[in-house]
Predict the structure.
Amino acid sequence: MAKPKYKSDRRSGEKRSHPKKVQRDRPPYSEQQRSDGDAQATKSKPPAAPIAERQIFEGARLAEKTGMVLENPASDDYALLDSGSGQKLERYGKITIVRPEGQAIWLPKLDKGHWQNADAIFTGDREEEGTGRWKFPKKDLGETWPLKFDDLSYWGRFTSFRHVGVFPEQAAHWFALQKAIQHANSPVRMLNLFGYTGIASLVGARAGAQVTHVDASKKAIGWAKENQEMAGLQDKPIRWICDDAVKFCAREVRREQSYDIILLDPPAYGRGPKGEVWQLFDHLPHMMDLVRQLQSQNPLMTVLTSYAIRASSFALHEISQEVFAGLDGEIHTGELILKHQDSSRVLSTSMFSRFVGRECVL
Ligand SMILES: C[S@@+](CC[C@H](N)C(=O)[O-])C[C@H]1O[C@@H](n2cnc3c(N)ncnc32)[C@H](O)[C@@H]1O
């Protein structure tokens, strides 16, 4: 596999100039907590590592679309069949699964038979790893089963944390980045931060991008590589990097690297491989400053998703407006939803805010 070179902005053919930035005075941590009026933040401890000074990226506020709803409609690959009473019934390929869903505070629509007929049920009632926390009423399904997204093959996976190795609502972003790459008029470099099992990385690589995938978990990187093999994309230029996302980005900024597409789907709380603490509300602003500096001269899209729903999507919107100020493009903000296959109900799973460059075809 050819080792990608990342020194200059290869889409524009020019050396990238960093956006004009100005150091901004930041109140000491405790003062900042008091001024944001957030009860949970006031209770939380100061972060272990000092957070770098924020920066100001000068320029006009971008055109914007808010309240956007992006949907992944039911397909052969995935369908949300029903939800209610704190659970959801989904179909992944041919397999039906019952998992907890805290948002589903309503009653299920389908009768009990449909739910009882599921192939896998997350019970979470044992301390075991992996499939030990799942019940398979019909036959043991092992740890993995084959899945597809838009004809790209990968593995579904019964994990200890009720996840199944894929977040199907993210398909809305995968279709968008695939189209953006296919319509770009020069080679695209993509960075997937907090990349998990790598489906977005594989979609990007299949569409023709050079991909850098970063995740703190060795296990997740291993799963992503298995997915690469399953998809038959071993020859595509993907760098798999096990690192703390903040540290990695800071290093890339120092090396003057740049990317045309950047995805980040940070958890509310996480840890880097060396125990580095990630707290979304403490670290996201600095992370976004780094992301802004990593954008290429003519960036296509930068997508921030958050499942930490104690915030409003407008928090993501405003941090995007702040750091992408002055760029040639728009900010789109909204929610990712799943519509139930046989009813008009929708289930909101996460919110997002994305920068879309003027040249990006969506
Ligand atoms: C898939 S994302 C979030 C997924 C989903 N939105 C959720 O809420 O579970 C979580 C990924 O971030 C990774 N992660 C957590 N902390 C990290 C850090 N400091 N640096 C890089 N990756 C990290 C985890 O290993 C995991 O694969």
The radius of gyration is 21 Å. Confidence is low (pLDDT under 50) at residues 1-17, 24-44. The chain has nine helices and 19 strands. The chain has two domains: 21-70+166-357, 76-157.
